[in-house]
């Protein structure tokens, strides 16, 4: 049985070298792109979507911007951390502060599975770099939300993963990741107290100078 042309082209375009390939990441991206191409065909009737997607020359798909926090559901980081699949909790992950329920993919995202590192957190950086443990080439935490210092190619990888979750027929968009408002209030109170303390200390110092 011959190898399909699109598969042969994909393998060739990615420059697969047996001694250098990160097999896990290679196949993660391969099946991600396969799912994306099927979604594009399903949603847009493009039966030829597979070839450009698998070759990495596809046009970016724009994600609907519905980040109106007043009208849309929001999830704090503390709440997201609890959605880790344990004790009956669903499996949530966040990418670019968009939260998705991936419970239907338990065999991929469940405890001990290949993608579990991404569950219960926003690991946008990891989606771009492929690093899932320790620190990346810039010295930043692999599972960080920050995209600072990433290349255009790495940012494009984040967009591809985002498209997967946005268009997947079994994963659902839940809401937007936000900072806990209570924590913001406490931080503001703490900042105000520090400013007040600095003012008091400065006033005391000035009084001592005048007295001298």
Please give a structural write-up.
With 212 residues, the chain is an alpha+beta fold. 47% of the residues lie in helices and 8% in strands. The protein has helices at 5-13, 23-44, 50-55, 77-82, 106-109, 124-129, 152-167, 181-211, and strands at 74-76, 92-95, 98-101, 172-178. Strands 1-4-3-2 form a 4-stranded mixed beta sheet. A hairpin with a 2-residue loop joins strand 2 and strand 3 (98-101). Helix 2 (23-44) crosses helix 7 (152-167). The longest helix has 31 residues, at 181-211. The protein is elongated and about 80 Å long. The relative contact order is 0.12. Residues 13-20 have low confidence and may be disordered.
Topology:
Blueprint: H1 5-13, H2 23-44, H3 50-55, E1 74-76, H4 77-82, E2 92-95, E3 98-101, H5 106-109, H6 124-129, H7 152-167, E4 172-178, H8 181-211
Parallel strand pairs: 1-4
Antiparallel strand pairs: 2-3, 3-4
Helix pairs in contact: 2-7
How do the SSEs run, as a string of H and E? HHHEHEEHHHEH
The level of helicity is 40-55%
The CA-CA distance between the termini, in Å, is: 96 Å
Total number of helices: 8
Across the major sheet, the strand order is 1-4-3-2
Outline the biggest β-sheet: 4 strands, mixed
Shape: elongated
Q: Which residue ranges are poorly predicted, with pLDDT under 50 across at least 5 consecutive positions?
A: 13-20
Number of strands: 4
Strand-pairing-aware structural class? alpha+beta
The residue-averaged pLDDT reads 83
Name some characteristics of this structure.
4-stranded mixed sheet, 4 strands, 47% helix, alpha+beta, 8 helices, 212 residues
């Amino acid at each position: 049985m011959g190898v399909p042309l699109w598969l042969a082209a994909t393998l060739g375009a990615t420059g697969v070298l047996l001694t250098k390939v990160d097999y896990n990441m290679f196949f993660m991206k391969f099946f991600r792109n396969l799912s994306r191409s099927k979604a594009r065909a399903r949603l847009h009737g493009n039966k030829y979507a597979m070839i450009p997607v698998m070759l990495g020359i596809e046009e970016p798909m724009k994600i609907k911007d519905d980040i109106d926090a007043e009208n849309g559901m929001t999830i704090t980081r503390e709440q997201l951390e609890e959605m880790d699949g344990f004790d009956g909790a669903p499996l949530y992950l966040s990418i670019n502060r968009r939260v998705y329920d991936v419970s239907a993919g338990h065999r991929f995202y469940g405890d001990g599975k290949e993608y579990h590192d991404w569950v219960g957190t926003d690991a946008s950086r990891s989606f771009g770099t492929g690093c899932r443990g320790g620190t990346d080439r810039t010295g930043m935490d692999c599972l960080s939300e920050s995209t600072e210092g990433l290349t255009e190619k790495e940012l494009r990888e984040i967009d591809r993963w985002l498209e997967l979750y946005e268009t997947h027929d079994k994963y659902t968009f839940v809401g937007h990741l936000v900072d806990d408002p209570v924590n913001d209030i406490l931080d503001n109170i703490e900042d105000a107290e520090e400013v007040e303390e600095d003012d008091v200390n400065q006033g005391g110092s000035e009084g001592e100078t005048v007295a001298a």
